[in-house]
């Protein structure tokens, strides 16, 4: 089962007690149904429990509907419908509508308390919403072709500080929430508390993983830097050795060169402890730079001598 399906199952399983909240849940289904007008109401879903939830909520408000299973090439669809004229009239009386409205907008009078808003938003999500698995990204969205409804729904979510955004995808209005904290809070608000906890847990896992990655990248960068520095110093020392210049060096520089040749893989800090007494990192760094400088000077003189010999100039 997908993460979105698990969230829907949590929402339909929650208990709604107050009559005003039950009506708000029905109102959410009506607003985001396939159609809601003088003909009645039709809402389609791939989850049977969601269709049965809609039927139960309307039944508690005195409006009878039916759930029908329909087989399609893409899979089974469950349709909740209210088509009987007497039931359609009862439904519109419940919401104070006529079915002749040219557009659907949210009636604030039908959302009397915070529980009403929660029930309404939960039904909207059941009808046309989805949420991405938090292992991939954080995103919760609700779609509707009704522009005025989309504007009102965005304002409703903003009023309750879920930081929604709205855009259009082809001819469909998309209201979405991106930030992980807001997706988590909105799921909990709708009644999908376990899904909300999974968002929080996954966020914690990602945080730890990112910290480990940053540490690993830092360690890798430091290791690469150490390897480059060691290679440069070793190259200089070996050049001095080839030229027979090591024996002529002061004791401190010769000892530093011998230790680096003996422990080529150690970082500068680790190499300090190989001296007796141990050297400071800055002190050893100074000696290594001195060795590199001497090698450069010796190489420069050798290159100059070679150039002068090629040009036939006296040395």
Automatic annotation (TrEMBL):
<keyword id="KW-0175">Coiled coil</keyword>
<dbReference type="GO" id="GO:0051301">
    <property type="term" value="P:cell division"/>
</dbReference>
<comment type="function">
    <text>Involved in cell division and chromosome segregation.</text>
</comment>
<dbReference type="Pfam" id="PF14527">
    <property type="entry name" value="LAGLIDADG_WhiA"/>
</dbReference>
<keyword id="KW-0132">Cell division</keyword>
<feature type="coiled-coil region">
    <location>
        <begin position="281"/>
        <end position="308"/>
    </location>
</feature>
<keyword id="KW-0238">DNA-binding</keyword>
<dbReference type="InterPro" id="IPR003802">
    <property type="entry name" value="Sporulation_regulator_WhiA"/>
</dbReference>
<dbReference type="Pfam" id="PF02650">
    <property type="entry name" value="HTH_WhiA"/>
</dbReference>
<feature type="domain" description="Sporulation regulator WhiA C-terminal">
    <location>
        <begin position="212"/>
        <end position="295"/>
    </location>
</feature>
<feature type="domain" description="WhiA LAGLIDADG-like">
    <location>
        <begin position="118"/>
        <end position="209"/>
    </location>
</feature>
<protein>
    <recommendedName>
        <fullName>Probable cell division protein WhiA</fullName>
    </recommendedName>
</protein>
<dbReference type="InterPro" id="IPR039518">
    <property type="entry name" value="WhiA_LAGLIDADG_dom"/>
</dbReference>
<dbReference type="InterPro" id="IPR027434">
    <property type="entry name" value="Homing_endonucl"/>
</dbReference>
<dbReference type="GO" id="GO:0003677">
    <property type="term" value="F:DNA binding"/>
</dbReference>
<dbReference type="GO" id="GO:0043937">
    <property type="term" value="P:regulation of sporulation"/>
</dbReference>
<keyword id="KW-0131">Cell cycle</keyword>
<comment type="similarity">
    <text>Belongs to the WhiA family.</text>
</comment>
<dbReference type="InterPro" id="IPR023054">
    <property type="entry name" value="Sporulation_regulator_WhiA_C"/>
</dbReference>
